[in-house]
Amino acid sequence: xxxxxxxxxxxxxxxxxxxxxxxxxxxxxxxxxxxxxxxxxxxxxxxxxxxxxxxxxxxxxxxxxxxxxxxxxxxxxxxxxxxxxxxxxxxxxxxxxxxxxxxxxxxxxxxxxxxxxxxxxxxxxxxxxxxxxxxxxxxxxxxxxxxxxxxxxxxxxxxxxxxxxxxxxxxxxxxxxxxxxxxxxxxxxxxxxxxxxxxxxxxxxxxxxxxxxxxxxxxxxxxxxxxxxxxxxxxxxxxxxxxxxxxxxxxxxxxxxxxxxxxxxxxxxxxxxxxxxxxxxxxxxxxxxxxxxxxxxxxxxxxxxxxxxxxxxxxxxxxxxxxxxxxxxxxxxxxxxxxxxxxxxxxxxxxxxxxxxxxxxxxxxxxxxxxxxxxxxxxxxxxxxxxxxxxxxxxxxxxxxxxxxxxxxxxxxxxxxxxxxxxxxxxxxxxxxxxxxxxxxxxxxxxxxxxxxxxxxxxxxxxxxxxxxxxxxxxxxxxxxxxxxxxxxxxxxxxxxxxxxxxxxxxxxxxxxxxxxxxxxxxxxxxxxxxxxxxxxxxxxxxxxxxxxxxxxxxxxxxxxxxxxxxxxxxxxxxxxxxxxxxxxxxxxxxxxxxxxxxxxxxxxxxxxxxxxxxxxxxxxxxxxxxxxxx
Length: 631
Hints:
By secondary structure, the chain is of the alpha/beta class. It contains 20 helices and 25 strands.
């Protein structure tokens, strides 16, 4: 058994296991237990690897047809499509593990020996048995992955397995409320009648309106669906483009016109979603909290917005565009964590002959004039290729990896002003038992209940709480009442944690990139914020703090440093109207190409944007194949 109670070994005190550089190097070493006040718990601050290293027998060559920078899911999708089409493809990844933000990493893998130092500096040895907690360290649920990609790449054959969630959303109340003052929670699922019963606790009117609202959303999403599978057409297609370029833009134009036609009477609603604040839309449909607050969270996930911000309606739409197993809007947990998505794509790519190399950081893109000729690694290795696809953010791709004099000045200026602000701090937690919510107490000790399987909304009684947290963030402060989305994927997937234990993933907002007074995010401030989050959860599920045996806190700067997400933005750039469709990332670069011939953007900074969707990778690969003979 893992010895969690340090006090049993050395009296009182609270120790924290810190694994140092083990996280990025993938090597299990002795940790150092540091004193962190009282409480008698063993906290594991950092994770080792233990996720997906792509294994193959190929050695790195000096020349390929195409090089992909970054083994995130979009880069792997590009590689798989290109390799299947007959190109010789190489993927180079700077981390020790593939997947980018769609990654699984382990805590306490194998046998870990840690050294405990008491206040009296007495050294003791703690042996931790082979316990393994697998965490979806960044992205954490699946829905947006395009069905065509699953089919084309045969991802189920290559190991992808998803646990569908139903119910989907649970909002506990800290104090009873509703129409008669006795409602304790709101649980939403795919069962329309049960949804009516749940919402009727707060409003009979809203209970009747909810189905109509969902049907309206479904129709709008269905009309938009083709736009996710087709590249945007540049505005130059109507003016300065060649006849060939205009012809190639025709499918995209047809898709857009088809979407407009399909919207029909919903066209006005679609325009409202694209431009209006989500709160305005929700206020028109509903009258009750916490229903509006629960729905409003989808309008701000990963975005430095409030539900009152113009354009937040689109972010809400973006998060209901998914599909799993033919069920529109369904979300699920990937078996083995989100790295299972990346590994399945990588399995397809390597099975067709692609080569994937980890610990290969790119220094810069190799160019001659306006022509891309490959990449140069940090160690000086040159890899020549006719094509380079970058899965990095637009900022990293064009401002860091490309020489400053290569792009026209006006494009560089536009790229420097892209919005990469992020409010997200992700906290990954290992617990020794399930949370026990006051609103819906566990029937049996540590037995999974329906609400444990879905997204649990904490501090979600009222939409004003979202705005209050945002305003504190804008002032450089940690929110006193953070917006928290909690998921417990081990409630459905038994492969993620030892028996009886669980992984809890906390997606929290709003945290500033830089704290007021230029205070850094260090161990002290990270743990200070984690305490705020855990105290919030404790109000709803007493005993949660005592159940914590490990934690990993990733602030916006941490997300940037570890995963290469500029500003910590999970979408590779804000999903605002000025950075969508034919303006993603900027109008001149909206079709995956750039002025440097042979260089393409294939990550979430390209259309149709963020989330584990794969569409930017697929569309970029198709663009490369259309251009390849002319390069």
